[in-house]
Amino acid sequence: MAASKPVEAAVVAAAAPGSGSGVGSGAAPGTGGLPRWQLALAVGAPLLLGAGAVYLWSRQRRRREAGGRGDASGLKRHSERKTPEGRASPAPGSGHPEGPGAPLEMNSLDRAQAAKNKGNKYFKAGKYEQAIQCYTEAIGLCPTEKNVDLSTFYQNRAAAFEQLQKWKEVAQDCTKAVELNPKYVKALFRRAKAHEKLDNKKECLEDVTAVCILEGFQNQQSMLLADKVLKLLGKEKAKEKYKNREPLMPSPQFIKSYFSSFTDDIISQPMLKGEKSDEDKDKEGEALEVKENSGYLKAKQYMEEENYDKIISECSKEIDAQGKYMAEALLLRATFYLLIGNATAAKPDLDKVISLKDANVKLRANALIKRGSMYMQQQQPLLSTQDFNMAADIDPQNADVYHHRGQLKILLDQVEEAVADFDECIRLRPESALAQAQKCFALYRQAYTGNNSSQIQAAMKGFEEVIKKFPRCAEGYALYAQALTDQQQFGKADEMYDKCIDLEPDNATTYVHKGLLQLQWKQDLDRGLELISKAIEIDNKCDFAYETMGTIEVQSVCVGGKNTHLPCAWAAQCSQEM
Question: Which segments carry the TPR repeats (predicted)?
């Protein structure tokens, strides 16, 4: 898409109390040691901007059925925790003598269990205040030496507080439960969610990290929360560390890659002979064609010279003078505002171009694409969709509309619609290598989420055909590398990244992704950091590299002492979406 940063779409559903593995037991499974990086976790494709296209993958596989892809991902979809723990009525053998004539006396634990069971009935009926009263009664009745039972009562009360969004009380009760039962997964996870709501990100990460270890990295819900919080912390760390950096123009490689994702963009086309300044023309009299002093034409000349820092000021001269090329200057200035990350300044210029009914339809469509991409980056998908649809309405033969809208549809998990848009782009531009590679990626995504192995193989074969047909398209190799990584074919993915580097040695983002692959594949932190540092050396304006460093640093600080594999692999898979 045309936005300068990928959109984050991590969503963690609020879970109600209970367990997907049955009721009654408060204890969590032991770990037996962390697996040797099953944390292919849910490694989906990174969101890579490198060549002007968002390398599209939102890692949340929310629709995966139980059983997943087996060994290919190491993930199982656990049921969400939607009921309180414990039976709704006393269990046989729970301390109540049964049978005709049995005595009715109940000891204190029995009375506590009865209060809990009553609370569970209230909970299931949505009567959370009454449930809290019953769980409180159970806590008061329970013998203090019955740690597991007591921890369950606290956890259940926390679940009821959660339904009332009383996050402080949730955290307090979960803390009590964990003190009584340190491996209590549900209490740890519920406390992690409470910390997230209370904006205690580090505490949230510590709890959800423990949950993932205890669950052997088999619960997608827990890993999504870990991923979400780790990325937020990584960005905060990067922002804090580099807060004094002035907004900078991206590298020339990034800018050229960005513009290469457009084929119907007037402002990125080479200057015509009649537009060039006198000294740039030959001696055949063409100099007579241009007599005005145009800031826009000067800006276009700077673009050809890769002197990008002067473009905004030259466009402003054209706009202030209300010159002949004011619409073009507004769009070019807005584009460079977006490239330096100043969406606030870009939006008025884009709005103005879109409102100019007499402006070239290609300019208006391009402005709609860029504003739509900006909205998606700002997590406003409805506004984004409206802009892309409007662009298609006013310029239905514009291949860029379908190309970039297809990427939006992938981010929105509307894969079938994405494939249709890529097909239309390819119909209009048969030689669009990027659209063909992204169509393959969309088909792979569709096959993966549908757990269709034959379609996955067909999509992988499609990638092979694309890179064979377009051997100079670095994006084709990069997208193929994403899918290969997801299939845990790490060696071949590494080869594809090497192909990207051969074709675009100055593309810093490729080095970052290759570094992340080393962390996930070999848990080689030194090599991974070496490649990310190389990215910064190539392009010291590469935010993706800085944010990735921040994520790794946060992960190392928060959980680095717990397991040497965890910071490498987890930081790798979490950084890829930033």
Answer: 112-145, 365-398, 399-432, 474-507
